[in-house]
Design goal:
274 residues; mainly alpha; MetI-like fold
């Protein structure tokens, strides 16, 4: 008799089980929305599907009368530019700082406490400082993502580097490898896939900082639009935008995961698919 913990669902069963919670949430929403609208046809908290359809048509398919742009596309493009730039800068800085912190004892002793302290500073607390220093433009929004995400990736990479077996480093030195050669030939190949994992784990945090910055100071962007229409209680716009952000976050996580497995097949060897 097999224990329940040892049972594995088939691909079709796994797909069904994965979709089941979404179906339950959708059915719950439809029932609740219908109940509220029956009691009050003007209720805005749980709009009907027809209201969602009209809002999506207005935001995603109809050009703005003021600018002539499709607001949904403009908001998405602006947010993705900020997010992408912030993540790229964070990843580059994390590699430049995280590897020396984990590999070189003198660097680790001098800067590891400082990086740990910086990672504890709530980025939202220094957002006003960023706006004062960098102004209300794009730089402050990207800087918030960088300051919020980089220390987390640095600490993760530092830990990963320190976990590399010492035998590998000793063998490389025995063969005459210099410090720089060890970094390029031994450490870097092992750290790159873990960098992708770190980015995946911090994407949610990056989205939070992006939406927060756009809500405070922006003229376009997904976060800006959500906080703009909230004053009108436009749930028919807010909910689709939230679902779109969720879909984008899930898509980026999926793409990063599969890119890691394709570029570094050895990294996924022996790991169960999540």
């Amino acid at each position: 008799m097999k224990r329940f913990m040892n049972l594995r669902p088939s691909k079709l069963t796994a797909l069904f089980l994965g979709l089941l919670p979404f179906l339950f949430v959708g059915m719950f929403y439809l029932v609740a929305s219908n109940e509220r609208l029956t009691n009050n046809p003007n209720d805005k908290l749980l709009p009907s599907m027809a209201s969602f359809s009209q809002a999506i048509n207005r935001m995603a398919l109809t050009p703005s009368k003021r600018t002539g742009e499709i607001l949904f596309i403009e908001d998405t493009t602006s947010s993705l530019k900020r997010l992408g730039l912030g993540i790229l800068i964070s990843a580059a800085l994390a590699m430049l700082i995280g590897i020396p912190l984990g590999f070189l004892p003198f660097i680790r002793s001098g800067f590891s406490p400082f990086v740990a302290a910086v990672s504890m500073v709530p980025p939202m607390a220094i957002l006003p400082i960023l706006f004062i220093v960098f102004g209300m433009g794009e730089l402050a929004k990207v800087a918030l993502i960088v300051l919020g995400v980089t220390p987390l990736i640095i600490r993760d990479l530092q830990q990963r580097v320190s976990e590399i077996p010492e035998e590998q480093l000793i063998k490389a030195q025995t063969l005459g490898a210099s410090t720089w050669t060890i970094v390029i030939r031994v450490i870097l190949p092992q750290i790159l896939p873990r960098l992708f994992d770190s980015i995946r784990l911090t994407l949610g945090t990056a989205w939070i900082f992006l939406i927060s910055a756009e809500a405070i100071a922006a003229t376009e962007g997904l976060g800006y639009r959500i906080f703009l229409v909230r004053r009108y209680m436009s749930m028919d716009v807010i909910l689709p935008y939230v679902l779109w952000i969720t879909f984008l976050a899930f898509l980026f996580d999926y793409l990063l995961k599969n890119m890691t497995y394709k570029l570094f097949p050895w990294y996924s060897a022996g790991k169960a698919e999540k």
